[in-house]
TrEMBL record:
It is a multi-pass membrane protein. Signal peptide: none annotated. One of its GO terms (cellular component) is plasma membrane. It comes from Neptunomonas concharum. The keyword Ubl conjugation does not apply. It is found in: Cell inner membrane; Cell membrane. Channel that opens in response to stretch forces in the membrane lipid bilayer. May participate in the regulation of osmotic pressure changes within the cell. This is Large-conductance mechanosensitive channel. GO terms for molecular function: mechanosensitive monoatomic ion channel activity. Keywords: Cell inner membrane, Cell membrane, Ion channel, Ion transport, Membrane, Transmembrane, Transmembrane helix, Transport.
Length: 137
Protein backbone atom coordinates (compact mmCIF):
# COMPACT_ATOMS: atom_id res chain seq x y z
CA UNK A 1 0.00 0.00 0.00
CA UNK A 2 1.41 3.35 -0.98
CA UNK A 3 2.23 5.96 1.61
CA UNK A 4 -0.23 8.46 0.08
CA UNK A 5 -3.06 5.91 0.16
CA UNK A 6 -2.36 5.08 3.81
CA UNK A 7 -2.27 8.77 4.69
CA UNK A 8 -5.56 9.39 2.86
CA UNK A 9 -7.24 6.54 4.75
CA UNK A 10 -5.89 7.91 8.02
CA UNK A 11 -6.91 11.50 7.29
CA UNK A 12 -10.50 10.74 6.34
CA UNK A 13 -11.25 8.51 9.31
CA UNK A 14 -13.80 9.92 11.75
CA UNK A 15 -11.35 9.87 14.65
CA UNK A 16 -9.04 12.36 12.95
CA UNK A 17 -11.91 14.75 12.36
CA UNK A 18 -13.05 14.34 15.97
CA UNK A 19 -9.50 15.06 17.12
CA UNK A 20 -9.32 18.21 14.96
CA UNK A 21 -12.60 19.50 16.39
CA UNK A 22 -11.34 18.71 19.90
CA UNK A 23 -8.14 20.67 19.34
CA UNK A 24 -10.04 23.69 18.03
CA UNK A 25 -12.52 23.63 20.91
CA UNK A 26 -9.64 23.08 23.35
CA UNK A 27 -7.83 26.16 22.05
CA UNK A 28 -10.97 28.25 22.50
CA UNK A 29 -11.48 26.76 25.97
CA UNK A 30 -7.90 27.69 26.84
CA UNK A 31 -8.62 31.33 25.96
CA UNK A 32 -11.74 31.28 28.14
CA UNK A 33 -9.78 29.83 31.05
CA UNK A 34 -7.00 32.40 30.62
CA UNK A 35 -9.54 35.20 30.72
CA UNK A 36 -11.26 33.63 33.73
CA UNK A 37 -7.99 33.37 35.63
CA UNK A 38 -6.63 36.77 34.60
CA UNK A 39 -9.84 38.75 34.88
CA UNK A 40 -11.85 36.94 37.59
CA UNK A 41 -9.63 34.79 39.83
CA UNK A 42 -6.38 36.74 40.09
CA UNK A 43 -7.72 40.24 40.92
CA UNK A 44 -9.41 39.12 44.18
CA UNK A 45 -6.32 37.12 45.13
CA UNK A 46 -4.21 40.21 44.44
CA UNK A 47 -6.50 42.34 46.61
CA UNK A 48 -6.26 39.79 49.44
CA UNK A 49 -2.47 39.97 49.17
CA UNK A 50 -2.43 43.75 49.50
CA UNK A 51 -3.30 45.00 46.02
CA UNK A 52 -0.71 42.95 44.12
CA UNK A 53 -1.23 42.59 40.37
CA UNK A 54 0.27 39.22 39.52
CA UNK A 55 1.07 40.10 35.92
CA UNK A 56 3.30 42.91 37.16
CA UNK A 57 5.36 40.71 39.49
CA UNK A 58 8.87 40.51 38.12
CA UNK A 59 12.50 40.58 39.08
CA UNK A 60 14.61 43.09 37.16
CA UNK A 61 17.73 41.32 35.96
CA UNK A 62 19.14 44.32 34.08
CA UNK A 63 17.93 47.91 34.30
CA UNK A 64 16.81 49.74 31.17
CA UNK A 65 19.61 51.68 29.53
CA UNK A 66 18.66 54.38 27.05
CA UNK A 67 16.37 52.87 24.45
CA UNK A 68 17.23 49.33 25.49
CA UNK A 69 14.39 47.77 27.51
CA UNK A 70 14.96 46.26 30.94
CA UNK A 71 15.53 42.52 31.20
CA UNK A 72 13.00 41.05 33.63
CA UNK A 73 12.07 37.67 35.03
CA UNK A 74 8.24 37.77 34.90
CA UNK A 75 7.33 35.24 37.58
CA UNK A 76 3.85 36.77 38.05
CA UNK A 77 2.82 35.79 34.53
CA UNK A 78 4.29 32.36 35.18
CA UNK A 79 2.17 31.98 38.34
CA UNK A 80 -0.91 32.99 36.37
CA UNK A 81 -0.08 30.42 33.70
CA UNK A 82 0.26 27.72 36.37
CA UNK A 83 -3.19 28.61 37.70
CA UNK A 84 -4.55 28.51 34.12
CA UNK A 85 -3.10 25.02 33.75
CA UNK A 86 -4.55 23.81 37.05
CA UNK A 87 -8.03 25.01 36.11
CA UNK A 88 -7.83 23.39 32.66
CA UNK A 89 -6.49 20.16 34.18
CA UNK A 90 -9.31 20.12 36.74
CA UNK A 91 -11.92 20.73 34.03
CA UNK A 92 -10.52 17.94 31.85
CA UNK A 93 -10.35 15.61 34.87
CA UNK A 94 -14.00 16.27 35.71
CA UNK A 95 -15.05 15.80 32.08
CA UNK A 96 -13.16 12.50 31.69
CA UNK A 97 -14.42 11.24 35.06
CA UNK A 98 -18.01 12.08 34.06
CA UNK A 99 -17.66 10.39 30.67
CA UNK A 100 -16.11 7.29 32.25
CA UNK A 101 -18.87 7.04 34.86
CA UNK A 102 -21.51 7.34 32.14
CA UNK A 103 -19.79 4.59 30.13
CA UNK A 104 -19.56 2.43 33.24
CA UNK A 105 -23.27 2.89 33.97
CA UNK A 106 -24.04 2.02 30.37
CA UNK A 107 -21.98 -1.18 30.60
CA UNK A 108 -23.47 -2.15 33.97
CA UNK A 109 -27.05 -1.63 32.88
CA UNK A 110 -28.60 -5.06 32.43
CA UNK A 111 -29.58 -5.76 28.90
CA UNK A 112 -33.30 -5.95 28.50
CA UNK A 113 -34.34 -9.52 27.86
CA UNK A 114 -35.54 -10.02 24.37
CA UNK A 115 -39.24 -10.62 24.17
CA UNK A 116 -39.96 -14.18 23.24
CA UNK A 117 -41.33 -14.31 19.78
CA UNK A 118 -44.52 -16.22 19.24
CA UNK A 119 -43.97 -19.34 17.20
CA UNK A 120 -44.89 -19.06 13.55
CA UNK A 121 -47.90 -20.90 12.16
CA UNK A 122 -45.63 -23.54 10.68
CA UNK A 123 -43.99 -24.16 14.07
CA UNK A 124 -47.39 -24.43 15.75
CA UNK A 125 -48.57 -26.89 13.11
CA UNK A 126 -45.39 -28.97 13.41
CA UNK A 127 -45.74 -28.99 17.21
CA UNK A 128 -49.34 -30.25 16.93
CA UNK A 129 -48.27 -32.96 14.49
CA UNK A 130 -45.46 -34.05 16.82
CA UNK A 131 -47.82 -34.17 19.80
CA UNK A 132 -50.38 -36.20 17.81
CA UNK A 133 -47.70 -38.65 16.74
CA UNK A 134 -46.51 -39.04 20.33
CA UNK A 135 -50.03 -39.68 21.57
CA UNK A 136 -50.62 -42.48 18.96
CA UNK A 137 -47.48 -44.36 19.95
Amino acid sequence: MSLMKEFKEFAVKGNVMDMAVGIIVGAAFGKIVSSFVGDVVMPPIGVMLGGVNFTDLAVILKEAVGEQAAVTLNYGKFLQTIIDFLIVAAAVFVAVKTINSLKKKEEEAPAEPEAEQEPSKEELLLTEIRDLLKSRS
